[in-house]
Amino acid sequence: MSVAIIDGLLRPGISPSDVTESCVTGNCTWQDYQSMGVCSTITDVSSTITARCRKRTTQFYPAGCNYSVPAINRNPTARKTVLQASKLGQTLWVGASDTQDYTSPGLNTLIQFYVIYVPDFIIWDSLDPTEDHKDELVALQATLSLCLNKYHTDMTFGVTDTNLVSKETDLDWQTSSETFERVSFDTVTVTHDAETFWMSGLNQGSFYKYLSLQTFTGSASMRSEERDGGGNFTENDVVRVIAASLYDDRAGMPGLTKLLDNLAVSMSNALRTTTDVPDNIRGTPSSFEVYIQIEWAWLIVPIAAVGLSLVFLLLTMYLSRKRKIPAWKSSLLAVVLGLTSEARRDWGAIRRPREMEETAKGRSIRLEANGGQWQMVKAD
Q1: I need a surface site. Which of 119, 195, 205, 328 has the fewest CB within 10 A?
Q2: Is 285 helix (H, G, I), strand (E, B) or coil?
Q3: Triad 316, 322, 325: Cα angle to 5°
Q4: What is the pLDDT of residue 284?
Q5: In sequence order, what DSSP letters do the residues of 76-92 get, joined into one string?
Q6: Of 248, 229, 44, residue with least CA distance to 139
Q7: Across the chain, how many H-helices and E-strands are there?
Q8: C-beta atoms surrounding 181 within 10 Å
């Protein structure tokens, strides 16, 4: 799953079609099916930004304002780091809900983090950092949650085309303990439309450890001379990617939305194709079913060949009858005309065709040279 997260953040254009289905003929259409997946949502919470400003620089704190949102402060396990805005301070901050379990945000939520950033850091550099400028900031609440995705998949000439038909969120996920071959583990399940979907607690825990602690946490310092939006300093690669999604071409919230949607697709593909509980797969069993598609247009070739042959036969019969051409059949008896007169006298008179066949069966002839010419003579 960690590989899918990195892939979703760094490789744009990930599609559900990246999961290649198995089709013997290379041309298949499947019924719509559901799979556990990940969905992303982003909410603008800029109106809730709060500011705490300090006019003077103290021994431990520089002059400037700290910006936050109440949603972070209300969470007792949330990180206390906030956007510190000073002349040389940070202009982008990413903070994740640092929870050790999923009871606080709910089982539907895998990770919830906040982004506070300056849309135009060039203008920000000209403002007094000790004054309240929260109106110049944007705060976004981003959520990655478990959901059920419904897909439709076609395969044409070996190329998979999968489209997301619908998605359902806010489902009643349940956590339970399972034992398989003396190994105990936790599972997350939901029953929907008479089908049960499973995910191991180990996989669920990896979301917290990787997403919350290592990924969506950090800050970036931006400078007006850095026009590419890369910033002078970022605490980790993910924050750098988020900064690029926000600042490149002034994309803002739509840029971050596109990034998280791509991440959600990558994580959903991983849930569709992997399992961390070997030999213990629950779900609806399926089997191969071969469909044969007939291209009727290709039948024109054999039909035309048979039809033209029939026309040729009928035309031959008609012209032969019109010209009174007798029926004939090739026969080896014609070679007897090449026998010498002595050999023909020895055979005697032949009055009927049947006598000719019987006489030919009882005689042997051979070919020999006589005076520079070849003749057929009776063989002794």
Answers
A1: 328
A2: coil
A3: 75
A4: 61
A5: TTS----EEESTTS-SE
A6: 44
A7: 9, 16
A8: 7
**Predicted local confidence at residue 68, as pLDDT:** 82
Tell me how crowded residue 218 is: count the other CB atoms within 10 A of its CB.
22
Distance in angstroms between the alpha carbons of the first and the last residue of the chain:
96
β-bridge partners, 155: 28, 160
State the pLDDT at residue 242: 87
Q: CA dist 12 to 46, 256, 266, 332, Å? A: 27, 12, 10, 82
Strand partners, 44: 140
Measure the CA–CA gap between 341 and 378, rounded to whole angstroms. Answer: 10
Below-50 pLDDT ranges, the chain = 76-81, 88, 98-104, 226-231, 277-280
Q: And the tokens for 245?
A: 């999604």
Give, as one character, the DSSP assignment of residue 323: T
Alpha carbon distance 155, 161 (integer Å): 6
Q: In whole angstroms, what is the distance from residue 223 CA to residue 293 CA? A: 62
Residue 166, both tokens: 């619908």
Phi/psi for 356 (5° steps) reads: -65, -40
Q: Would you state the structure tokens that stand for residue 216, as one six-digit string?
A: 């969506």
> Dihedrals φ, ψ of 313, to 5°?
-65, -45
Task: Compute the distance between CA of residue 307 and CA of residue 224 in angstroms, rounded to an integer.
Answer: 81
CA 79, 81, 84 angle in degrees (round to 5)?
A: 165
Distances (CA, A) of 224 to 89, 123, 129, 302: 13, 8, 15, 75
Buried b (16+ CB within 10 A) or exposed e, 342-362: ebeeebeeeeeeeeeeeebee
> Parallel, antiparallel, or unpaired for β 365-370 and 373-378?
antiparallel
Rounded alpha-carbon distances, angstroms, from residue 328 to 325, 355, 372? 9, 19, 34
**What's at 320, amino acid-wise?**
S
Nearest of 82, 144, 80 to residue 113 by alpha carbon? 144
CA distance 145 to 169: 8
Minimal CA–CA distance to 272: which of 160, 173, 183? 160
- List the beta bridge partners of residue 147: 37
